[in-house]
């Protein structure tokens, strides 16, 4: 008998937590996993949490599908990539017209679009859903970015709304657009997350090496900043990470962790999407590059041997400057990320609602912050303009960009790497100047390639008379 409101395949960290969250909200959920061991573990966990009455574990795929009420909503939470395609193929013979697959992993949005297009003529709905918040979010309330088949979204909407994080009672879930829209927005969320994390790390570098602060002192600063305009999950956890002590040695844990950052791909996807659409997203690109440089530890050690230790010239930047620099950098980074979203929306006809996206990121996800509440309010008033020209943020930027300038200048003199914050400053300076220097670029392009240039009042596709440099 079909008694489950929804089904879920993939009982690793994310899937099992999501399933428990759904069961806890009173919905009956059928679960399945490729290997049976994880099903057994899930059954034991559900029992421990008193949720076994709301969970139906099935070891055979056909039995699992049959256990879900029609029209079926089946969540897939397996490893991103080929496993998702494999899972779709295995499910297809068991599904009926009107059923939907809801893929909640970190999939590349173009893959999601392809799967959506593949399933549409078969009458099977496909939802590509970005879920942010990690393990904790999946269990107690993630931010949920939905894209794909709108009709089938309405079938799953009550369940996904019930499990989503809440900000002032408002659920952090929204249907954003057709095809790959949900996964695209999740990708840019992760790109912005990369930027936030990198800028925080750069400021920590100045505290540690420029101001001579130990991790405990740094932790106190982040704790204080979390009460101000930077209030956010990432600032909060930074305080905890800096305060943590390694039990065996009694030393600050952060000082023992190797300075090599990992990445799984969503930052790179964000940077590629931005470049492909011609939208500058230098803060995200900088953050991705910084992780790549960090991973080349051996090369960095060798290069320091050649150039000597960085001077770390004494800096007169204050903690207040660092706080404001972070805020200014963050505004630029979000301006870039949202500009990428706006452009993708235009190119794909997604009609992505920027204010809603800022709203559903206010709780549950990794970049949740007070700042996003301000952003959603600003976008509600100001349409889709670049954040740098939205009045509420203009005021903050005018107040904070001098500090960003001071910090980046001190970093240059003191030999502190600041890939992300300096990229943010350069973007700001490029964006806010009426007269740039691309006139020279156009002259060069015309010189070697006859690409033409424009002179106001005389027309475009004009050419210069250039001396020949051949044979010189
Ligand atoms: P993993 O990405 O580690 O994937 C493991 C799950 O995928 C297991 O259930 C595994 O089954 C299943 N699987 C792998 N290959 C296949 C296959 N060919 N056919 C069927 N099932 C397969 O799990 P996570 O829970 O960490 O993540 C799930 C998704 O959520 C991923 O896309 C991830 O990127 C995304 N995500 C993860 C977050 C996190 O914090 N971990 C945060 C946000 C999103 P088996 O047990 O049989 O091996």
UniProtKB/TrEMBL annotation:
Q: Which GO molecular function terms does the record list?
A: NADP binding; phosphogluconate dehydrogenase (decarboxylating) activity
- Where do the 6-phosphogluconate dehydrogenase C-terminal domain residues begin and end? 182-467
Q: Which residues form the active site?
A: 186, 193
Catalytic activity reads:
6-phospho-D-gluconate + NADP(+) = D-ribulose 5-phosphate + CO2 + NADPH
Note the PROSITE patterns from the entry: 6PGD
Cross-referenced SUPFAM superfamilies: 6-phosphogluconate dehydrogenase C-terminal domain-like, NAD(P)-binding Rossmann-fold domains
**EC number(s) per UniProt?**
1.1.1.44
Supply the alphabetized keyword list: Gluconate utilization, NADP, Oxidoreductase, Pentose shunt
Question: Which Gene Ontology BP annotations are present?
Answer: D-gluconate metabolic process; pentose-phosphate shunt
Q: Which residues bind substrate?
A: 106, 132-134, 189-190, 194, 264, 291, 445, 451
Q: Which residues bind NADP(+)?
A: 10-15, 33-35, 78-80, 106
Pathway listed: Carbohydrate degradation; pentose phosphate pathway; D-ribulose 5-phosphate from D-glucose 6-phosphate (oxidative stage): step 3/3
Stated role: Catalyzes the oxidative decarboxylation of 6-phosphogluconate to ribulose 5-phosphate and CO(2), with concomitant reduction of NADP to NADPH.
What is the similarity comment for this entry? Belongs to the 6-phosphogluconate dehydrogenase family.
Could you describe the subunit structure of this protein?
Homodimer.
Name recorded for this polypeptide: 6-phosphogluconate dehydrogenase, decarboxylating
Q: What is the lineage of its organism?
A: Bacteria, Pseudomonadati, Pseudomonadota, Alphaproteobacteria, Hyphomicrobiales
């Amino acid at each position: 008998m079909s008694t489950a409101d929804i089904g879920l395949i993939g009982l690793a960290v994310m899937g099992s937590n999501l399933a428990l969250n759904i069961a806890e909200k009173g919905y009956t959920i059928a679960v399945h996993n490729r290997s049976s061991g994880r099903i057994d573990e899930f059954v034991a966990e559900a029992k421990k949490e008193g949720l076994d009455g709301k969970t139906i574990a099935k070891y055979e795929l056909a039995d699992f599908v049959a256990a879900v009420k029609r029209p079926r909503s089946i969540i897939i939470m397996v490893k991103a990539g080929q496993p998702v395609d494999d899972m779709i193929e295995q499910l297809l013979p068991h599904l009926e017209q009107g059923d939907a697959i809801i893929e909640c992993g970190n999939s590349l949005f173009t893959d999601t679009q392809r799967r959506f297009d593949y399933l549409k003529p078969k009458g099977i709905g496909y939802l590509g859903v970005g879920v942010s918040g990690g393990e904790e979010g999946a269990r107690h309330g993630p931010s949920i970015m939905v894209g794909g088949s709108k009709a089938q979204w309405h079938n799953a909407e009550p369940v996904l709304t019930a499990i989503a994080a809440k900000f002032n009672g408002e659920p952090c879930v929204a249907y954003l657009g057709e095809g790959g829209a949900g996964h695209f927005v999740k990708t840019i969320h992760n790109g912005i997350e990369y930027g936030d994390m990198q800028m925080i790390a750069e400021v920590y570098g100045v505290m540690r090496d420029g101001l001579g602060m130990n991790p405990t002192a740094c932790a106190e600063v982040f704790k204080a900043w979390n009460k101000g305009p930077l209030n956010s999950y990432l600032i909060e956890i930074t305080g905890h990470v800096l305060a943590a002590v390694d039990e065996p040695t009694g030393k600050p844990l952060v000082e023992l962790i190797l300075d090599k950052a990992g990445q799984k791909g969503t930052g790179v996807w964000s940077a590629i999407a931005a470049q492909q659409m011609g939208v500058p997203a230098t803060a995200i690109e900088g953050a991705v590059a910084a992780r790549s440089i960090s991973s080349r530890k051996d090369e960095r050690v060798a290069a320091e041997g050649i150039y000597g230790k960085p001077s770390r010239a004494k800096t007169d930047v204050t903690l207040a400057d660092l706080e404001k620099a972070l805020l200014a950098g963050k505004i630029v980074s979000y301006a870039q990320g949202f500009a990428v979203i706006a452009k993708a929306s235009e190119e794909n006809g997604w009609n992505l609602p920027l204010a809603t996206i800022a709203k559903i990121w206010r709780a549950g996800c990794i970049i949740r912050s007070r700042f996003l509440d301000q952003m959603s309010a600003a976008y509600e008033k100001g349409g889709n303009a670049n954040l740098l020209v939205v009045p509420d943020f203009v005021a903050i930027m005018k107040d904070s960009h001098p500090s960003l300038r001071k910090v980046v200048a001190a970093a240059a003199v003191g030999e502190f790497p600041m890939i992300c914050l300096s990229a943010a400053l350069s973007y700001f300076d490029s964006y806010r100047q009426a007269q740039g220097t691309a006139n020279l670029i156009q002259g060069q392009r015309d010189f070697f390639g006859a690409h033409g240039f424009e002179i106001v009042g005389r027309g475009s596709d004009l050419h210069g008379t250039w001396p020949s440099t051949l044979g010189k």
